[in-house]
Design a protein that fits this description.
The chain is an alpha+beta fold and 364 residues long. The protein has eight helices and 15 strands. A four-stranded mixed β-sheet has the order 10-11-15-14. A three-stranded mixed β-sheet has the order 1-9-8. It has a two-stranded antiparallel ribbon with strand order 2-7. The protein starts with 6 loop residues before the first helix and ends in an 18-residue tail after the last helix.
C-alpha cells in the first residue's frame, strides 16, 4: 500500500531543517491555506495536513521517533491523520470524532415513476391516479422487522455501542481506532429472529394508487414531486417522495415552444386575394380571425393569450399562425378559363412556352 507523503515534504523543508526553519515554513503555509483566508474548499485538507506535520516535527522527541521509524514515503498509515493519531491519540486530527450510535429510525427512499398525458391535459392540467410500487410498513411485524413475539435486541458484536474498536501496534505504541459496527450498522441493535414477510426490513412492497394533481403548463420530460408518496421509512421514519416524469403526447396541429404555440393557417387563393373572416380551432375552442385582402404567404397572425398557461403563475403564451396561401390544382376547364381571363385583365397572362420576365427581391 502506498503510504502518506513525507512530513518534511509536506512542509517544504529538508530533513536537516532547524526548528526555526520548520516554524517559518509552517507559518508561511498556514497564512496561505487557512480556511479564513482561502475560499478554495480543497485547501482545507491541505491545511490540516500541514498542521499535523508541523505538530509532529516541531516537537523534538516526536521528530526523533519519526526520523527513526522510516524514510521517505513508506509508512504503515493511510494518511497523515493516522500518523498524527499515533502520536496524539484517536479522534484528534481534523476534529475527528468516534462514530455516533445511529437510530433505527430512517427516512424512506424516493420513488421514481412516469405518467403520460395528452397535449391538452398538459396545457390545462389534470387529475390522475397513477399506480406506484412502494415499500410500506409490514403488517406482520408492525414495522419492527422482528418475528411477532420477539423484538430487536442488543447487538452481540458491539454490545449496543454501535461501533467496534480495532487495535494495532506500531513502533509508537498501541493505536486504537473506532468504526461503525458492520453487524448493526451503528444502531446498537440486531434482529435475531427476522420477520418472515419482510426479512427484517420492516417494510414490504405494495402497489397502490397515488392521486396526482398535474398543474397547467407542464411540459414533456418535466419531473413532478409528490411529497410523502415514496417508500415508507424504517422503524417509523418519515416516507420519501414520489418523482413523476411527465410524458406529453404531441399535437397534430400545434408546435409548442416554451409557452407559445405555432401553427400554419392554410387559406385558399381567392380568400387571400379578397379577404375573409375565418373560424379557427384553438385550445380554447373556435376563434375568429380576420384576413385582410391581399394577404401573402408567410404573414404571421398573433392571437394573444391563446397559448399555454404559465406554470405556477398567471398569464399565458400566445398562438402564432403563419399564413400559407394554397395554389389551386386540378383545375376544371371553366375554372382555368376564368383564371386566364383574370390574368389577361391584370396583364399576368402567360402563354405556353413563352417566358415571362419575373421580379426578384431581397428576402426579409
Amino acid at each position: 500500500m502506498a503510504g502518506v507523503r513525507d512530513l518534511y515534504e509536506i512542509l517544504g523543508v529538508s530533513r536537516t531543517a532547524t526548528q526555526e526553519e520548520i516554524k517559518k515554513a509552517y507559518r508561511r503555509l498556514a497564512r496561505e491555506l487557512h480556511p479564513d483566508v482561502s475560499a478554495d474548499p480543497s485547501t482545507e485538507n491541505r491545511f490540516k495536513e500541514v498542521t499535523a506535520a508541523y505538530e509532529i516535527l516541531s516537537d523534538p522527541g516526536r521528530r526523533r521517533q519519526y526520523d527513526l521509524y522510516g524514510q521517505g514515503d513508506v509508512f504503515p498509515f493511510a494518511d497523515v491523520g493516522d500518523i498524527f493519531e499515533a502520536f496524539f491519540g484517536a479522534g484528534t486530527f481534523g476534529r475527528r470524532r468516534p462514530p455516533r450510535r445511529r437510530t433505527r429510525v430512517q427516512p424512506g427512499e424516493d420513488v421514481f415513476a412516469s405518467v403520460s398525458i395528452s397535449f391538452r391535459e398538459a396545457a390545462f392540467g389534470t387529475h390522475r391516479e397513477t399506480e406506484v410500487e412502494a415499500l410500506e410498513r409490514c403488517d406482520r411485524c408492525a414495522g419492527t422487522g422482528a418475528e411477532p413475539g420477539t423484538a430487536p435486541s442488543r447487538c452481540r458484536r458491539c454490545g449496543g455501542a454501535g461501533q467496534v474498536q480495532d487495535v494495532r501496534r506500531s513502533i509508537f505504541g498501541t493505536v486504537m481506532t473506532a468504526r461503525t459496527c458492520p453487524s448493526c450498522e451503528g444502531t446498537g441493535e440486531e434482529i435475531v429472529s427476522k420477520c418472515s414477510d419482510c426479512g427484517g426490513d420492516g417494510r414490504v412492497a405494495h402497489v397502490r394508487p397515488v392521486p396526482v394533481d398535474i398543474p397547467p403548463g407542464v411540459s414533456d420530460g418535466m419531473d413532478l414531486r409528490v411529497p410523502g408518496a415514496g417508500h415508507m421509512g424504517r422503524a417509523g421514519g418519515p416516507p420519501g417522495d414520489l418523482y413523476l416524469s411527465i410524458g406529453v403526447a404531441g399535437s397534430p396541429v400545434f408546435e409548442r415552444r416554451d409557452q407559445d404555440l405555432f401553427a400554419v393557417l392554410e387559406i385558399p387563393m381567392v380568400q387571400a386575394a379578397l379577404g375573409a373572416e375565418l373560424e379557427v380551432e384553438t385550445l380554447d375552442g373556435p376563434e375568429r380571425v380576420k384576413l385582410e385582402a391581399g394577404i401573402e404567404s408567410g404573414t404571421v397572425i398573433r392571437l394573444r393569450g391563446k397559448g399555454i398557461p404559465n406554470l405556477g403563475r398567471r398569464g399565458r403564451g400566445d398562438l402564432f399562425l403563419t399564413v400559407h396561401v394554397g395554389t389551386p390544382k386540378d383545375l376544371r376547364r371553366e375554372e382555368r378559363r376564368l383564371l386566364e381571363q383574370l390574368g389577361e385583365m391584370r396583364g399576368e397572362h402567360a402563354e405556353k412556352h413563352a417566358p415571362v420576365r419575373a421580379t426578384l427581391r431581397r428576402p426579409g
